Structures are given as structure tokens and as C-alpha cells.
Amino acid sequence: MVDELAAPLGYDPRWSILLGALTLFPVLLLVGRTALRIIRHPGSLRISGTERSRVLAVIDDIPRATAAGEIAPRAAHSRLSSVVRDFVSASGSRVDGKTLRDLESSAADEMLLEAVRLFYGGTFHGNPTVSVDEAARAAHRVVAEWKN
């Protein structure tokens, strides 16, 4: 029986190399394709329900902080914009560095565009035309309904 097991050791070492290469090739191919898919399509990454809940809690806290005088309405609009953009970007849709005009010229989601338009008015105008509560409702809707 020992003779039967020892027989393959007598073969040319090139056969061992070929067998190792044939074994490793499918594994490396699978790992490489998975890595490329994640790099090329980061939107395929999923945001957990826990993370979504955490972001919704942050959004819900902003109008309360504004009403309590802890933050100014302009800062609240800016904070809402940052929170929503960070959340959407984490799902793979890179919007964190885009202006409203950039988003309008790209194929951005209409729900996201509506919210960003509300944030822009409150962030860049001295006297916001949209209340923080309304902007927070729009932010809440984007995060709650965002499909990633």
C-alpha cells in the first residue's frame, strides 16, 4: 500500500506544477472577478438596516436641535445635505462632492434631486425659503426609501 502512495512522487516535477496551477487558476479567477465587480459596481454594496436606522435618527435629531437653538437653520440645512449625501455615497452612488448642477446634469435619482434642491435653498441663501422640518422630511424620505 505504501508503494501505491509513493508512486506519484516518482513523476516529473512539472506535473506537480501543472496540477497546482490548474487548482489555483479557478480560485484566483473567482477572487479576481469578485474584486473587479466590487470596484466597478460599488452600488452593489448593501447598507445594513442598523446603519439606515442610525442615519434616520441623526436626521430626526436635526430639527429638534434647530428648534432648541443649538444649531442655526442654515447649518441644519447644510448638515442634512451632508448626512444624505454621505448615506447615498456609502451605497455606491458617488454624490458627496457634486453640486446641484452636477446632479441635475447626471442621471441622479429624482427623489435625491428634490431633497438636494431643498437643502441648497437653506444652505446658500441668507433666509431659507424651506423650513428645516420640511428639509428633514425630504432627507428622511431619501434615506428610508433609498434602494442600494
Helix proportion: over 70%
Described by strand count, sense and barrel closure, the largest sheet is: none
> Terminal Cα separation, in Å?
58 Å
Radius of gyration: 26 Å
Quick check: average pLDDT? 77
- Could you say which structural class the secondary elements and strand pairing correspond to? mainly alpha
What is the H-and-E element order? HHHHHHH
Low-confidence stretches: none
- Give the helix tally: 7
Q: How many beta-strand elements?
A: 0
Apparent shape: elongated
Domain count: the total is 2
Strand content: under 5%
How would you characterize the overall build of this protein?
There is one protein chain. By secondary structure, the protein is mainly α. 71% of the residues lie in helices and 0% in strands. Helix 4 runs antiparallel to helix 6. The radius of gyration is 26 Å and the shape is elongated. The N and C termini lie far apart (58 Å).
Secondary structure layout:
Layout: H1 2-6, H2 13-40, H3 49-67, H4 73-90, H5 100-105, H6 110-124, H7 132-145
Helix pairs in contact: 3-4, 3-7, 4-6, 4-7, 6-7
Short recap of the structure:
With about 150 residues, the chain is mainly alpha-helical. Helices cover about 70% and strands about 0% of the residues.
Top keywords for this entry?
single chain, 2 domains, 0% strand, 148 residues, 7 helices, mainly alpha, 71% helix
